[in-house]
Amino acid sequence: MKEYKRDRKSRGKEIVLTAVTGILLAVCCVFLCPYMTLCAKAAGRPVAISSCTIAGGDVVCQISAGSVPSSDDGLYYIYADEVWQDGTTGKIVASVGAGSSVTAAFPLQYNTADSNLSRKFLVAVKRGGQMVQVSDEHYITNPEAIAAYTSPRRDAGIKGILPDLTKASNGELQELGIKQVVYNMYVDDICSDASVPGAVPFDYNGRTWYFNGDMVGKFDSMIRSFNSYGLQVTMVILNGGRGAYSQDLVHPTARGGDCPGYALNVADASGTDHLKAIGAFLGQRYSGKFDHGQVDNWILGNEVNARTSWWYSSSASLDFNVNIYVKAFRIIYNELKSANANVNVYNSIDQEWNRKSNPGSFLAREYLDQFNYYINREGNIDWGLSYHPYNSPLYDPYAWNGPAVWVKKDNLSTPYITMQNIDILIDYMHRAQFLNPAGQVRSISLAEIGYTSSFGDASQEASIAYGYLKAASLPDVDAFMLFRQTDDAHEMESNLALGLYDLNGNKKPGYEIYKNLGTPGEGAAKARASEIIGMDIDQMISQNIVWTRGGDGVVQ
Q1: For 188-208, what is each residue's pLDDT tens digit?
Q2: Which of 84, 235, 332, 523 gives a 20 to 30 Å CA spacing to 34?
């Protein structure tokens, strides 16, 4: 779903593409599509870049080899490729004598035309006069080492919401006890050029970029206000594909689509350079070191596994889509963290763990697995997971009692992961291959979740209490963002009355119960929820009691 994007979704219909056969994909990969080289996985290269880190003004790569490959001159050549380049097509930035364990260093050249901050590196040898790649690619994994604008995080609690800006200034967020807010930022809204009055110039990597002064000013004011209320801000970076000054940010495979969200362009220099500048601009401006406000958390995209809904690309290949998303993620991560070391950067997937309701989507589990594969292969970083554990179906009103056909307890084959079986996701993220570079479980943000009142206020009350209390019981969950503060008329056509306020501005009973959660008045909220559910809610959560019901979840 999910509408803090509904304004964009209403502009276009959802596209459902028919998957091509594996044979045709293979043919395209080799012969037809210039972008399909991204799909290929490396096969047993003899040399490994075991680490690639910033040390002072240099990049230092540790290189190892089980057996040193033969070469014409006994040297390793270190290439710096842009993300859109493959193989020995970038620049040679260093050479070093080949060996089983060697170190290569070269200048970072931060904020110059030759900046290596968001490039990828590989090792090649000269053989028969030709350069041959002998290692996988590796990215810098500690961009925070050069962060000049680091600010303390505003972590104060998991209780969050998508705010209604018309109600933001009258104290109602504070009355609700909200600690976090989440909001959207479209790159096509903030990009500009020198011809636009009031454009904000930003010098980066040897070029002057421009941002829309009016739109950026509105974000400044909003973020400052949220901070002044004591709120932590999470911003979702989206690509609506419609701006006159951001067309280079739409991936070539996404051009001509009809969707509210498009894959970012990492296929050429224009889009890649622009994306670097955007990441650096946002990281610096909203670091909290200037008078523009502080954003602690950034989410790249919305439910990116939902290809034909929110992160459009015409390719039906999972590997291709994950690969281009990882490239964009690397850029945004390195640029943001090189400004403010304390920001968290998240990917975003939906609740369709092993079942997709839209044939144009990818399963959340397989997308997560492939994303993690590329991150580990090319240099582990401290990415976070933004997950949307909605009920299934979305309009199902009972967060504590979902349809047995869709929600399985303690079973990785469950079609959906909702708040009822969120433990499955948490346990999954505890697996060794998913841990961050420090060996810790990653930050998990439940950045979008909502419950309808279309089938009665009581079910919404109990669902809100159940969802929040379940999240609060899990130490690895860093955010529970209730969706939304006020109902949306378009969503209500699908029985999704998700707000704490109705369309007339009246507070629903769900408002009162959410206000009490996480406060000294929480006992009253628990008592009310227990009455509705028919069981003590603390017992249900502490003992991980999962109720399910027959049928497909259709509410009669």
Answers
A1: 999 999 999 999 999 999 999
A2: 332
